[in-house]
């Protein structure tokens, strides 16, 4: 087990539990491209591997089987003259190899990476794998089979919600999420990169918590120099990443990119399903619904509850920092440098939106700072024609927190005009919802707030420090 894995505490608990269990384990790992799925499994189970294979992208069945045999020959010479014609025969060879390994209490790991790439149309791979697991692996108690894929829609439909041979066969599933701000800070510390929290936050707002993107940050970087080098300079590592992500995860001719583009240009509070359709002149139907759901499952879009007046509605918004940053800055400003772009008014406006997105991703941090993390709550945005609240934490202890997010370059001076705006939000919320709960306004500002007008109005002032805990 590698000691070099930063964060991923709940995931490591599941993987450790699988090592100690009394049975063979079938684990599905999924999450968006570049998030660190392969690294997690290879590092954590490095001492337990007995066989691993990575699927070939856009390859035919015969090439996939040949790749399988080549990997098998890395472990044994017994099958050099074998030429399996189908996946049943290929898995039978794997079975024979496993039978030659001395039995012990130590778990033996079989890792199949990019599983969806191997299961091409009419390849027979999935039924053969189902047979391998059901007839052989379950007869032993010392195997861990990990199947991994970036195509979240495939992993959910064909593996997690499988209605055939793998129905209810998974023993554990891991959806790998982006790093939190706390994990990013720990990751940089591990790499001997020491940055102030505000600089880490600015990097996170552009790149998100995607492990592979963060690997490109170097010691001595500021957020400006790092983003400029990684996204804008000639030959930048992430220059074509947006297009590559969509090519690798989703089929051509679908609505994924159009949905993302509509949301990037839409209101920051999000868009309704009909709003997305009308903005791109798309037709409602199965293809659109499938594309939207796949974006949600892959972590690019968030479906969230919002209340307009007192009517609940469902809104969608971009929930992937890099996608938003690409569409707002990288794509429209090719050939420009971030060292000039970040000084523009557009960047200041975008920061507010990105900061709000990060606040939503770290709601549990905010609740801990408010000392209400043990209390159940409904979390949503709210608006009417006169006011809008970034985040409502509607708590079961008869209290409501109206949270205002403010990204600002210094301590924010809460003047009389801004105080009036906050009071109006409280008044409108109470009037519209007719809530009888205690209403408390919370400010989450980059460096906190100051000013006499906050006294008696802002119940709690939070800084970005709470997002890193």
Would you mind describing this structure in some detail?
This protein has 469 residues and is an alpha/beta fold. It folds into 4 domains: 9-175, 3-Layer(aba) Sandwich (Rossmann fold), CATH 3.40.50.300; 181-239 and 331-354, no CATH class; 242-329, Arc Repressor Mutant, subunit A; 363-468, Trna Endonuclease, Chain: A, domain 1. The chain contains 20 helices and 14 strands. The strands form 3 sheets. It has a 7-stranded mixed sheet, with helices on both faces. Helix 3 (61-73) runs parallel beside helix 4. The longest helix has 18 residues, at 416-433.
Shape descriptor reads elongated
> Looking at CATH, which topology of the largest domain would you report?
Rossmann fold
Into which percent range does the helicity of residues fall? 40-55%
Q: So what's the CATH class of the largest domain? A: Alpha Beta
Mean pLDDT: 93
Structural class: alpha/beta
Strand content: 15-25%
The major sheet is characterized as:
7 strands, mixed
Strand order of the largest sheet: 7-6-8-9-10-12-14
| CATH architectural label of the largest domain | 3-Layer(aba) Sandwich
Helix count?
Answer: 20
Low-confidence parts: none
Q: How big is the Rg? A: 25 Å
Distance between the termini: 26 Å
| CATH homologous superfamily annotation of the largest domain | P-loop containing nucleotide triphosphate hydrolases
How many distinct folded domains? 4
What is the β-strand count?
A: 14
